[in-house]
Design brief:
Layout lengths: L1 E6 L5 E5 L4 H10 L7 E4 L5 H12 L3 E5 L2 E5 L6 E2 L1 H4 L9 H8 L1 E5 L12 H9 L3 E5 L2 E5 L7 E3 L8 H11 L5 E5 L5 H12 L3 E3 L5 E5 L8 E3 L4 H13 L3 E5 L7 H10 L2 E5 L2 E5 L9 E2 L11 H8 L4 E6 L8 H8 L3 E5 L2 E6 L7 E3 L3 H13 L3 E5 L2 H4 L5 H7 L3 E6 L1
Parallel strand pairs: 2-15, 3-14, 6-7, 10-11, 18-19, 22-23
Antiparallel strand pairs: 1-23, 1-24, 3-5, 4-5, 7-9, 8-9, 11-13, 12-13, 15-17, 16-17, 19-21, 20-21
Helix pairs in contact: 1-2, 1-7, 4-6, 5-6, 6-7, 8-10, 8-12, 10-12, 11-12
The structure holds ligand EPZ.
The site of ligand EPZ has 26 residues, from helix 1, helix 5, helix 6 and helix 12.
Length: 419
């Protein structure tokens, strides 16, 4: 296992290239199962989650070849069984359900199981498959779905915490090859789903309304191969934008799509950072005095839950009290106790964290827990005086491409060491 050693207190300066979006590439790769023809996805980040989904697709019988920032996938002959030992290690593999149902009319996928941020139920995914005519049972920890035919239907996918991103993706993919028209009500609106709809349409599907709460999919007989470049990672971009503000530096995010994370940029401006968008360049500049602010995570286009932990670290430096409320997942405050080890003053009150600032952070050994909590600890280490050691950074490598190299290019004193 590896750790990051960070000697903080250095403002970040320079340009950072934003990689392709993990949360777009995973469903895009899964969608390649919908055709026996070869597909190519470009702008693919070098992440363990992406490599891992490639392994799962290979285990299903697909040919998967990574080359540079592209992946070629040919699913000429595939099986419908996704093994527990593979699936349990990545919740996102539930996005195989829709394509397997669309292509084979059957799927056996291990239930993803919970993770540190919550129980990760799939009831809405199953509701979507049943709406299309599938018989779905849960047995032995597996989702077993079968259908003689998939028939288009109207389905409401809103859950207790709002829409489901991968649930919407699964229904879009299965419905692309169903008979008739499917209407998804209360669909998730994330940019990654717009990206998926664009790829499906390039394959010959007929998807409209992606990015809005109502998505219409007119089923077709079959889909053909296509090439597609994934959108940039809005959460990686948000993470570096917050790190720029937190270290009072000035960072230009090349290749980012500001329109994909308005809520984060708006909040950064509200607390006092400067955000400049000129000729397609996005520059974030920190200021000496940060103002407190309240943040509540919401479905897109609200403030993203995947940037909540990083924002909390920033708010430890604001002069006053900030209240950060997590409305999407039931336990996404794993970073709070670790930030306290750096000197943060945060109290959890139910779904909210009360952050008192500014607090002087000083380096300490901390433990990464989930992908975005780890990013929050890295930002804490960049702020803190002295040395911070972030352990178990395999969590980080799941969702951030070469984050230590990118930070060093911005002047940070960061190195990766074997534990
Ligand atoms: C996607 O997960 C992302 N992952 C997550 O990013 C992200 O946090 C999440 O969307 C919310 O934006 C990928 O795209 C690979 P959901 P997903 O279904 O689709 C509840 C990261 O850090 N729910 O939108 O699995 C669920 O418990 C990861 O990159 C049900 O109740 O999330 C949660 O409270 C973490 N029933 C809420 O909905 C269901 O059937 C949103 O979950 C499904 C979900």
């Amino acid at each position: 296992m590896y750790s990051l050693i960070i000697n903080g207190g250095v403002p970040l300066h320079g340009e950072v290239p934003i990689s392709g979006a993990k949360n777009a590439v995973l469903p895009l790769m899964a969608a390649c199962l919908l055709t026996r023809e070869p597909c190519v996805i470009r702008n693919v980040p070098d992440l363990s989650d992406v490599q891992f989904l490639g392994r799962i697709l290979t285990s299903l019988g697909a040919k998967v070849r990574f080359a540079g920032d592209s992946v070629a996938i040919e699913a000429n002959r595939i099986q419908s069984f996704a093994d527990y030992d593979l699936v349990r290690r990545m919740r996102g593999s539930i996005c195989l359900l829709g394509p397997l149902m669309g292509r084979l009319r059957r799927a056996e996928i291990s239930l993803p199981g919970g993770c540190v941020i919550g129980s990760r139920p799939v009831d809405l995914h199953l509701k979507g498959m049943r709406a299309l005519g599938a018989a779905v049972a849960i047995a032995g920890g597996y989702v077993k779905a079968r259908a003689k035919r998939l028939v288009g239907a109207e389905v409401f996918l809103g859950g207790r915490a709002g829409p489901t991103v991968l649930g919407t993706a699964n229904v879009m993919m299965a419905a692309s090859l169903a008979d008739g028209v499917t209407v998804i009500q209360s669909a998730a609106c994330e940019p990654e789903l717009v990206d998926l709809a664009n790829f499906l349409n390039a394959m010959g599907a007929r998807v409209s309304g992606a990015g809005s709460p109502t998505i219409v999919i007119e089923g077709v007989k079959q889909l053909h191969g296509a090439e597609h470049a994934a959108i940039p990672d809005r959460i990686e971009a948000a993470t570096f934008a917050i790190a720029a503000a937190a270290t009072r530096g000035e960072v230009t995010l090349t290749g980012a799509r500001p329109d994909h994370f308005h809520a984060v940029l708006d909040k950064l401006q509200e607390v006092g950072a400067r955000v400049d968008r000129r000729e397609g360049r996005l520059t974030v500049k920190g200021t000496r005095e940060l103002q407190p602010s309240d943040v509540t995570t919401q479905p897109y286009a609200g403030f993203p839950t995947d940037a909540q932990a990083q924002m909390m670290t920033l708010m430890t430096q604001a002069r006053g009290i900030s209240i950060i409320t997590e409305r999407i997942f039931e336990s996404r405050f794993m970073h709070v106790s670790e930030l306290a080890r750096l000197g943060a003053d945060i109290t959890i009150e139910g779904p909210s964290a009360v952050v008192k600032g500014p607090t002087k952070l000083s380096g300490a050994p901390v433990m990464a827990s989930d992908l975005r909590a780890s990013a929050a600890l890295v930002i804490g280490g960049l702020i803190a005086r002295g040395q911070t050691r972030v352990r178990r950074i395999y969590h980080l490598d799941r969702g951030y491409e070469r984050i230590d190299e990118k930070l060093r290019r911005l002047g940070a004193r960061v190195k990766r060491v074997q534990e």
